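Researcher: For the annotation table, I need structure tokens for MRH domain-containing protein. Please keep the output clean. Sequence:
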Amino acid sequence: MKISIAEANRARSEAEEADRNVRDLLRETRQIQDSLDRDYGLEEEFAVLDGQCFEYTDREYTYRLCPFDQATQRPKNGGSETRLGTWSGWAGDESCKAGKYSRMLYDKGQGCWNGPQRSTVVHLTCGIEHTLTSVSEPNRCEYVFEFVTPCVCREVDEKVHESLLGHDEL
Ligand code: MAN
């Protein structure tokens, strides 16, 4: 069988397109698998934060937290962004009541001059709205973010509630 150059070219570009589609699907599958494997809490309560980002600006920098992804810092008056860490995992104290879901760790950030790689610990506390409320750097290149979110609020125990209200009201 004789194949013209035009036919060969068409076949090649069709094969290339099929190849691209396969790669796109594999990437998508990997992303879906990653988010299925991720620990979003006992009742998947933190899943809502995946894909969102929150910012806080102080005198020098705008800090950005994209939960389950990364933490960054960029100078207010221009300049490049610095990576303060990539999602590592839950890091709360398991022996405390709040448990491991009270802190997040982002590590392996950009190397600090003459120091460690940057890392960020996020403290989560209960509040009505998701908000990054403050950022500090207690040690050079070690950042602490305070993040308020309804995801860590607990339901008031019904019995406690009842005793607070008093039974005679019923
Ligand atoms: C940059 C920022 C600071 C950090 C210094 C360390 O200026 O990332 O937060 O303390 O680098 O050299």
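Researcher: And a one-line annotation?
Model: DSSP finds two helices and eight strands in the chain.
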